[in-house]
Amino acid sequence: MKLLGSLMGALFGLLFAGAGIFIALETAVPTFQSWQTMQHWHSTSATLLSLRGKDNDTLASYRYVIDGRTYENDRVYVATTRDNIGSYHKKKYQELYQLKQTRQPVTIWYDPANPADSVIDRNMRWGLFVLMTSFCSFFILIGLAVVYGAITYKPDNNKDKKISLTDLRKAWNEKCEDPGYEQSFLEFVNEQKYEAEETTAARENAWLDKKEWRNNRIRSEARSTMWGAWFFAIIWNAVSFPILFFLDDELKKGNYVALIGLLFPIVGIYLIKIAWNRTREWRRYGVIEFVMDPFPGSIGGHVGGTLHLINVDAHDAKYKIDLECVYTYMSGSGDSRSRKENIKWFESGYTRVVPTLDGIDLRFRFDVPNDLPEADIDQTDDYYFWRLKVSADIPGIDLEREYNIPVYQTVTESSDIHHNISAQVEELKKEKAEDIETALAQGELLNTALVRSLRFNDEGNEVSFYFPMFRNKVLTVFALIFGGGFGFATIMMNQSFADGGIMSIVMLVFSIPFALVGLIGTIAAIYLPFNNLSILIAERKIKAVRRLLFIPIKRSVASIEEIKDMSVEPTGSTGQGSAKIKHFKIIVHTKDNHKFTVAEDVDGKELAEQFKDYIYDRLNMSF
Question: Which of 87, 121, 155 is the last residue in one of the domains?
């Protein structure tokens, strides 16, 4: 099955790349070859016989005489396909129309070796050519990337597989089919457990098989991240900046929708800024090794050590440390296959800063729970890894580094590190929970994190909550980028090949995924900023009204006698790692199996649970 999957992935990639090559052979390649050949053609005068013009084409026929022989032709320009890019066709039609009305000859260019081949305009439209080339290159690169991923994919057959009790019972029953087998099921289970322990023991010091983990001095991924940022920025800009070649002409035509295309170059500039900042950070701080204590990091013990920064004297800066246990996996298939992450556990705090003769040391340790997975040695396909991040706002250039570190079930503690970040985290959690509990008990909801998404009014007998419009600003921006960008790409694909031929069919098929993403992004860009939710608790009832702008789209009401329960459910998250914030909503469940939302965009499950209890109290209910 793995081989079949790889073959199917490679075939899909080849088809995708082949489509890009086919489009290039039909558009960019013949256009360039024609232009190059025409630079050696001769000029002469011709008489216009007919003229027609469209937004995507200029049609003209003309007659000319070479060496006493008369020829007729209808080729007007270099490109071999119709297009709606810029105002070229409008200007060319007006130019030829004036010549035809005044009965003036038109200058043409013909092939001296074959005078029947001729053209009116032999100039290359470089904006159109760059757009065609970039478009084809995008499909070819994506296809080749899919082929490479399918060919180089190596399934990890060495990962430990958890065996369920059902599997053990099945294996034992199979052995019992042998009349000479006399072990009881309990003895069989103990035997399997002993073999698993032997396998685990054989893996002792397995992390030393990884080159980067052969000693306790771990280097960051700053350099590879820097080059990766530059590679991505260059590819993105190479594909997106050709939009600027024809944007001016589109605006002159009154096509202001084309301004959406500016989103792609703007993102490209931002990517260059990120790459430049990575470069400055690397040049400023150089190599920063993480000296682990203990080595490796210990599940059920400590993960900690020292980071030595040379020529840094920012003793007053706060150095933040994040430790994350990450499960990363491949999602999707074909060209939509991408790597995703799921943070299984993380903690974050601030290090102890110790001055040294040539800089500073950052010292810290974490207390790690004993039920977390170990780091995988062969980090391909789906795997677990442990990531350490250090960051600081330092005048001039901020510090930002990441480390992929070994963490295993050794149950060992640091020998020389006493600065306990986990203790800091627990103390802060306790203080925050107490502050929230106090604020809610006093009815001061706006003194909690609810203030980000909630407007609150307490009039004694009535309590109203209002979750206003424009509370999802970050998600709205992303929706606008995806909806506008992919919608613009869909329009340009189909406008560029609108002649009804095979190319228009090919473009229509390939534009469908872009259109779907654009549609979803557009719907989200409308709904996210303009939806709002009003909640009223009064007269032993809770009422909810969902509106889009000022138009009610859903009303719900339930009395305390009708309410069966309330639940807290996740709705998504923003940020990554230690900066990740999970969002929750509170749902009322009625006895007739209806449900409706009474709170949303609540940051953190603990706050959501406390807010749910507050709603119970205001309804004079208890569960």
Answer: 121
